[in-house]
Design goal:
By secondary structure, the protein is mainly alpha-helical. The chain has one domain (21-108). The protein has five helices and no strands.
Length: 119
C-alpha cells in the first residue's frame, strides 16, 4: 500500500458515523448483552470466553459509534477480576452517545438543547 491509500483506510476506520436511533439502540443492545453475558458467567467463567465477548463488544461498538479512546480502558477494565461485574460497556455507550450527540449538534449548528437531526 502506498502512503495515501493507508491514510484513506485509517481515516475510514476512525470515521465517526452519524448517530441514528437505530445505531444508538443497537449500541445499547450490544453493551447490555456483553455486560449480561459477563454477569451471567460470573467470576468463575473461563477467561477466554469473557475476553472474546469483550473483543466482539468493543469492535461492534467501535463500528456503531465510531472509535473513541474510552473503548480501550473499558476493555482493559473488563479484564480485571471483580471489575468486570460492573456494567462497564453500558456506561461507555451512555457516555459516547451523549458525547457524539453533542458533537453532531455543534457540527450541524443546532443549539445545545436540541437533539441531532437524525436522533
Amino acid at each position: 500500500m502506498d502512503g495515501a491509500n493507508e491514510k484513506g483506510v485509517l481515516a475510514g476506520l476512525l470515521r465517526v458515523p452519524l448517530l441514528t436511533r437505530r445505531r444508538i439502540a443497537l449500541a445499547f443492545v450490544v453493551a447490555a448483552a456483553a455486560d449480561g453475558i459477563t454477569l451471567a458467567l460470573g467470576p468463575l467463567a473461563a477467561v477466554p470466553v469473557e475476553e472474546v465477548v469483550d473483543v466482539v463488544a468493543m469492535v461492534l461498538l467501535w463500528r456503531l459509534l465510531g472509535f473513541h479512546f474510552l473503548l480501550l480502558p473499558a476493555f482493559v477494565a473488563e479484564a480485571v477480576p471483580g471489575v468486570e461485574m460492573f456494567p462497564t460497556w453500558l456506561a461507555v455507550v451512555a457516555y459516547l452517545v451523549r458525547l457524539r450527540s453533542k458533537e453532531q449538534r455543534v457540527e450541524s449548528g443546532g443549539a445545545a438543547g436540541e437533539p441531532p437531526a437524525e436522533v
